[in-house]
Amino acid sequence: MNESAVTRQHIEQLARQLGEKCLARRIVLATAESCTGGGIASAITDIAGSSQWFDRGFVTYSNAAKMDMLGVRQTTLAQFGAVSFETALEMATGCLEQSQADMAVSVTGIAGPSGGSEEKPVGTVFFGLATKNKTRTKHQLFSGNRHQVRLQTVFYALQLLYN
Q1: What's the pLDDT tens digit per position in 127-139?
Q2: Is the pTM of this model over 0.85?
Q3: Which of 40, 73, 88, 113 is the 20 to 30 Å CA partner of 49?
């Protein structure tokens, strides 16, 4: 699928499939979101019965919220920035630690239209995924306007959780 062609219907279908998989495997999820402002948690809770497989979502738009709610270190933010692999990883692990979840996803990025740089252009998003045994990070560069970047970010985060 063309990234910029992601729609709310695609997101709803994937969230439904994710819920079925979580129920079958008895996995509970949590989210830590910056640039999506709660969009991943919203997509999940749009699915009836999601309370059986979704624990909570953190919207940590500011650096202070990332530190206060998720334990992201000030030194990490100072050295690497809010939009980085390191911050995404600390967001995901903090989300897992502050919840009853088995798996957590985090997103931090630049949705635009401003805020980008040559090093980190608009559309840059970092993802963190954490379980009790394993963590990993991903990076994507999405295209389109602010709305499209955010939709693509939600869809990609749901794909990470599903896979």
Answers
A1: 999 999 999 999 9
A2: yes
A3: 88
Size of the chain, expressed as the number of residues it contains: 163
CATH of region 3-162: 3.90.950.20
Which run of H or of E encompasses 117? none
Given a contact cutoff of 8 angstroms between Cβ atoms, the answer to whether 15 and 159 are in contact is no
Q: Which regions of 42-120 does DSSP assign to beta strands (E)?
A: 54-59, 103-109
Structure tokens at 29: 């999820």
Crossing angle for the helix pair 146-162 and 8-25, to the nearest 10 degrees: 20
Decide if 90 contacts 71 (C-beta within 8 A).
yes
Helices and strands (H and E) in the chain: how many = 6, 5
107, 35 Cβ separation under 8 angstroms: yes
Chain centroid to CA 149: how far?
13
Per DSSP, the three-state class of 6 is: coil
Helices 63-70 and 85-97 pack at an angle, to 10 degrees, of 40
